[in-house]
Amino acid sequence: MSRLWLRLRTSAFGLALVLLAGTGHAATADIPGATIVPADTSETPFKLSTGLYSVDRHGDQAGGPGLDVNLRYTQGDDHVWVGYFRSPALAFSQPRAGWDGSYRAGALRLLPSLQVASGGFVGGSIAAEAGTTWFAGGGLGRTNLRNYANLNFDPNDAITLYGGYRWDDADSVVMQLVRDNRLNPDQQNLHLIWRNQLEDGERFTIDLLAKQGTVDDRFIRRAGISLNYERTRWFARLAFDPKVNFTAQNMLRLSTGTRF
Length: 260
Known about the structure:
Elements: E1 46-55, E2 64-75, E3 78-87, E4 92-101, E5 103-105, E6 108-117, E7 121-131, E8 134-143, E9 158-168, E10 171-180, E11 188-197, E12 203-215, E13 218-230, E14 234-241, E15 251-259
Antiparallel strand pairs: 1-2, 1-15, 2-3, 3-4, 4-6, 5-6, 6-7, 7-8, 8-9, 9-10, 10-11, 11-12, 12-13, 13-14, 14-15
């Protein structure tokens, strides 16, 4: 089976501060630093996401599509979700579930998370953030190294450091570093994320990715991009991820969803 989906050093929980959106792990915020003012979800506490992933074939590593479906519920600063991933081309499927939250501790905002999945996988993380207009944060993630379909795409047995500037509650720019500090310490993803609110509830996010690390005994550097567009009730995301999960394969992702 392709190493793309079954990697012992990664999981799908994304260090609570990442707060993924669009691929089935979306919280009230899309990026680090956006958690200080959560979105109002009182009228739309549920978020249903569907992601279609296409990975190319490389050598003896199989290519083909994968489907991820996720349902998330938000109550206050707590978020719980259940999801299911299936790839017929890879003959692999896996249900999973998780929780993450945001809590104040003096001048800090604490961002814990916990995730479980079939096959005995367990993962968790803790992060802390400080600041309002200018902000910074960091976190640590750990798993039990069981096999997992890594739909986060960043190293998660890793440290994360980030900082940025917020113009208002919905407009910000963030630089974020996620670096493996357990099994593959030269592998890292560097994100530059711009989040902008338009009129009538429209919002877009641009995530520029620079990754580097060893892939099949060869050190690589590659660039990727993710584009996310949202309205009040629905959203869509398109992303290109080269050498996804630090394998030899490239991935194209299209994700859509709705809030209700």
